[in-house]
């Protein structure tokens, strides 16, 4: 790794000026950079990139709702019994369509399920039917909650002020 000191602007140092003032002005203009990409002779293309890539869903509506992940539509299942297995979840949710992925997290200490699961469907229709039918249903004697894992946030910029 290289340590580089960059001086932002040209600094005029007067010989007659107080030495302390010129040093302070010089320190204000210096930026210390550390890490890869700042060595001598290396380009500065990384400084030109300021924004992040975004995924355009094509939907410009103002309403909030479910959002598709990269591969499919993911449901967040809560209050899952700690002794439930992947087969139990697969049996319950597969009647609404083909499941692409089931993610269950286990507690390291006990080895039991943490109480939630992520279930991914390939199409919106399958996921929506499963959500509607299974939200509030029973799995191993426990009532489960089923909702969308990712939802669109309301648009920023239109803020309403509440006055009482």
Give a concise summary.
With 164 residues, the chain is an alpha+beta fold. It is built from 4 helices and 8 strands.
Describe the secondary-structure layout.
Elements: E1 2-7, H1 19-29, E2 30-35, H2 45-48, E3 73-78, H3 86-93, E4 99-106, E5 113-121, H4 124-134, E6 138-139, E7 142-143, E8 145-148
Antiparallel strand pairs: 1-2, 3-5, 3-8, 4-5, 6-7
CATH topology heading of the domain at 73-148: Alpha-Beta Plaits
Number of strands: 8
Instruction: Give the N-to-C terminal Cα separation.
Output: 57 Å
CATH superfamily of the domain at 73-148: RRM (RNA recognition motif) domain
Mind summarizing the main beta sheet?
Answer: 4 strands, antiparallel
> Helix/strand-derived class?
alpha+beta
Helix fraction bin: 10-25%
Beta-strand residue percentage: 25-35%
Radius of gyration (CA) equals 28 Å
Residue windows where pLDDT falls under 50 for at least 5 positions:
none
Secondary-structure element sequence? EHEHEHEEHEEE
Shape: elongated
Report the CATH C-level class of the domain at 73-148: Alpha Beta
Mean model confidence by pLDDT: 78
3D architecture notes:
- The chain is an alpha+beta fold and 164 residues long.
- It has a domain at 73-148: Alpha-Beta Plaits (2-Layer Sandwich).
- The chain has four helices and eight strands.
- The strands form three sheets. Strands 4-5-3-8 form a four-stranded antiparallel beta sheet, covered by helices on one side. A two-stranded antiparallel ribbon has the order 1-2.
- One of its GO terms (biological process) is mRNA processing.
- Residues 34-67 are annotated as: Disordered.
- This is RNA-binding protein 8A.
């Amino acid at each position: 790794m290289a340590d580089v000191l960059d001086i932002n602007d040209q600094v005029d140092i007067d010989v007659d000026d107080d030495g302390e003032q010129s040093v302070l002005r010089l320190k204000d203009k210096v930026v210390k950079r550390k890490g890869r990409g700042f060595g001598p002779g290396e380009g500065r293309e990384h400084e030109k990139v300021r924004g992040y890539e975004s995924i355009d869903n094509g939907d410009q509506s103002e309403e909030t709702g479910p959002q598709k992940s990269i591969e499919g539509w993911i449901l967040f299942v809560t209050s899952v019994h700690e002794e439930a297995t992947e087969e139990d979840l697969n049996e319950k949710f597969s009647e609404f369509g083909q499941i692409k992925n089931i993610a269950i997290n286990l507690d390291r200490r006990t080895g039991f399920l943490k109480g939630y699961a992520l279930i991914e469907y390939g199409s919106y229709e399958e996921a929506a039917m499963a959500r509607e039918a299974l939200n509030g249903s029973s799995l191993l004697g426990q009532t489960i909650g089923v909702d969308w894992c990712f939802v669109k946030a309301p648009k920023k910029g239109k803020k309403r002020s509440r006055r009482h």
